[in-house]
Design brief:
Layout (H helix, E strand, L loop, with lengths): L6 H10 L2 H5 L4 H11 L4 E9 L2 E6 L2 E6 L17 E4 L9 E4 L5 E5 L7 E6 L3 E7 L6 H14 L2 E7 L7 H13 L5 E4 L8 H8 L3 E5 L6 H9 L24 E4 L5 E4 L12 H7 L1 H7 L16 H8 L4 H19 L3 H26 L4
Parallel strand pairs: 8-9, 8-11, 9-10, 11-13
Antiparallel strand pairs: 1-2, 1-4, 2-3, 4-5, 6-7, 12-13
Length: 375
C-alpha cells in the first residue's frame, strides 16, 4: 500500500535526489531521516565499502573517501557498515568525515568467533539476503538453517541459491536437492543457479531488482562469480575452489556495494568461516515454524518436548512427520542462542541457573523414586 508524501518529505527528497543517490536506493524516507543533518550543511551518501577506519561513500557528486572517527562507538553493532546511509562533510574538507549514520531499517549481524561473544554487523539496510550454497560439495542442511535464522532475524527476505548447478547434470537429482533444501527453508525461494551457464541468473536478477541484496555464504560457494554475473562485469576477483573439499580462498576480503544494471544494489561479503547466531530467537522460530506450530498443540505450554505426556512434537517425531535431525537442529540453535544472550543479560543468566537447579532436583527425585528411597 502506498501513501501520499507530505510536502516536506517530497521537498527533501527532491533537494537531494540525484541519479547516483537514486541508483543506490535513496527515497523519501531516507530524505526525511536526513533532514536534521541537511540543516547542518552535511550531504547524504551511501557507504559502499569500509576499510580500517575509512569508508567510500557514494554521494550525489560521486564516490568520496571519508573518515569514520566521529562514529566509532564501543558497541561493534553500531560501527559504520556497508549499506549504511551516512551524513558526510560537504566538499572542501580534508579529510572529510562521516558525522552520523541514519537509523537502519534492517541489519544483518552474527556473533564473532572470539570468546568475547561480540556481535558483528555484516550489512545494513538490506531487503534480500541471498544465501549461496555450492552444489560442488554435499549439502549441509544445518548450516543453511543457521544462515536462514540470521537472515530472518535481520528483517530481510532470505533466498537460497544453489550455485554451480551445472555440476549436477541429472535433472532428477537436481530436483531432489532443491526439495531437500525446501524442507528446511519454509517460506523461502530455493533457486538452482549456474554462473557458468547463466541458468537462473535472470530469475535472480528479477527477484532482487529494486532493493538492496546481501550475498552470503562460505568460501567456495561461488559468491564472487555470482556477483560478477549479477553486476554484468568482473567487479570481483575469482579463484577456483580446492578440489579436495570445495573450499575457496577468500578472494573477497571486504564488503562491497555495487549498483545492479537491472535496478537495486548488491553487497558482496567475504566467505564466512563461522555462522554464529546473534540474538536470533525470532529467526530460529521462523526457520522451524512447523516445530513451533506443533509446540502450540502440546498439552503443557512449557513442554520441553522430552518425556511430557501429550507432547505433539514427540508424537510427530514418533510417526515420522518430523525428522529427528530437524528437531535436534532446532534445539541446538535455541540453546546456542540462549547461551549467547545470557552472557550479556544478567537476568536471563539467573533464570537459566534456576532452571538448571530445578531440573537437577527433579532428576535426583526421580532417581530416588526409582530406587525406592522416597515414598
Amino acid at each position: 500500500m502506498s501513501f501520499p508524501l507530505s510536502h516536506r518529505s517530497s521537498s527533501l527528497f527532491s533537494s537531494f535526489s540525484s541519479a547516483v543517490l537514486d541508483a543506490h536506493g535513496w527515497d523519501s524516507g531516507w530524505a526525511e531521516s536526513f533532514a536534521p543533518y541537511a540543516a547542518q550543511g552535511l550531504v547524504p551518501g551511501r557507504v559502499v565499502r569500509v576499510d580500517r577506519g575509512q569508508c567510500d561513500v557514494a554521494t550525489a557528486d560521486g564516490t568520496v573517501r571519508a573518515d569514520t572517527a566521529f562514529v566509532t562507538p564501543h558497541d561493534p553493532l553500531r560501527v559504520v557498515c556497508t549499506g549504511d546511509w551516512a551524513a558526510v562533510d560537504p566538499e572542501g574538507g580534508d579529510p572529510r568525515y562521516v558525522r552520523a549514520c541514519l537509523p537502519r531499517r534492517t541489519a544483518f549481524a552474527r556473533s564473532t568467533s572470539s570468546k568475547r561473544s561480540e556481535g558483528q554487523i555484516l550489512a545494513a539496510n538490506v531487503d534480500h539476503a541471498v544465501i549461496a550454497v555450492s552444489l560442488a560439495v554435499d549439502l549441509d542442511l544445518g548450516r543453511i538453517e543457521r544462515f536462514l535464522a540470521l537472515a530472518w532475524e535481520s528483517g530481510a527476505q532470505p533466498i537460497v541459491v544453489l550455485s554451480k548447478a551445472d555440476l549436477v547434470p541429472d535433472p532428477t537429482g537436481l530436483s531432489y536437492l532443491v526439495e531437500d533444501v525446501e524442507t528446511v527453508a519454509p517460506g523461502v525461494q530455493v533457486l538452482p543457479l549456474s554462473s557458468a551457464t547463466g541458468e537462473g541468473v535472470d530469475v535472480l536478477s528479477g527477484v532482487v531488482a529494486g532493493g538492496t541484496t546481501v550475498l552470503l555464504g562460505v568460501s567456495g560457494a561461488g559468491k564472487s562469480t555470482l556477483a560478477n554475473a549479477l553486476v554484468g562485469q568482473d567487479v570481483m576477483a575469482v579463484q577456483a575452489a580446492r578440489d579436495i573439499d570445495g573450499k575457496g580462498r577468500h578472494t573477497t576480503t571486504t564488503r562491497n556495494l555495487f549498483v545492479l544494471p537491472g535496478g537495486g544494489v548488491l553487497i558482496d561479503t567475504p566467505g564466512l568461516r563461522g555462522v554464529g547466531l546473534w540474538d536470533a530467537e525470532t529467526g530460529v522460530g521462523q526457520v522451524f515454524s512447523e516445530i513451533e506450530e506443533l509446540a502450540r498443540a502440546c498439552r503443557f505450554h512449557d513442554c520441553a518436548h522430552e518425556s511430557e505426556p501429550g507432547c505433539a512434537v514427540a508424537a510427530a517425531i514418533e510417526d515420522g512427520s518430523l525428522p529427528v535431525r530437524r528437531f535436534d537442529s532446532y534445539r541446538k540453535l535455541l540453546r546456542e542462542n540462549q547461551r549467547l544472550v545470557a552472557k550479556t543479560d544478567a537476568r536471563l543468566r539467573t533464570e537459566i541457573l534456576k532452571d538448571w537447579k530445578r531440573k537437577g532436583a527433579e532428576g535426583r527425585q526421580a532417581m530416588e523414586l526409582k530406587r525406592g528411597r522416597v515414598r
